[in-house]
Amino acid sequence: MSATxxxxxxxxxDHRRMEDLFRAMRSVEADRASALKEFSGLLIAHAVAxxxxxxxxxxxxxxxxxxxxxxxxxxxxxxxEALLALLEVDEVGSDEWDEKxxxxxxxxxxxxxxxxxxxxxxxxxxxxxxxxxxxxAAFLKERERxxxxxxxxxxxxxxx
Length: 160
Hints:
It is a single chain. By secondary structure, this protein is mostly helical. The protein has six helices and no strands. α1 (7-26) packs antiparallel against α2 (32-58) and α3 (66-87) runs antiparallel to α4.
């Protein structure tokens, strides 16, 4: 993890880690189950931290589109549904696993790309670094709290 506290950079780091985990989940040579466990926790913790600490603050900036922020929240729900479908597959590496994994990859990649182009670019251009660092600290604290609560467990994901 980087030493940065800039919320934009922290979110981007999470997105890149998710991409790494997607590669591991696709690889027959990797521990796919472990990659899924890490991914599940990261995805849920990341989304909750964004929705609780970052998105509400960014809605206050006139040059950051509220509709994009709300759209980001609905895309989190789509990602959670795709994650749940993959978590419920009995056999890692089965055809069903591959199919559900690709749906998850598609949902999360689409959201990350859109978020990076709209919300994060808007934050980078319109939010002072000091404020982005405050948001980054809050984001990290909430994300860690979620991870400690095992937010990526099947039971928890079912309840989201």
